[in-house]
Amino acid sequence: MPVALVTGASAGLGAEFARQLAGRGADLVIVARSADALHALAAELRAEHGVLVDVLPADLADDADVRRVADRLADPQRPIDLLVNNAGFGLPLQFADNPIEDEVRHLRVHVEASMRLMHAALGTMRGRGGRIVNVASVAGFLSRSTYSACKSWLIGFSRWANGEYGRDGVSVTAVCPGFVHTTFHSRMGLEAGKEGVPGPLWLDAPDVVAEALTAAARGRAVVIPSWRYKIVVAVSRLLPRSLTASVARRGRV
Question: What pTM was computed for the model?
Answer without folding.
Answer: 0.89
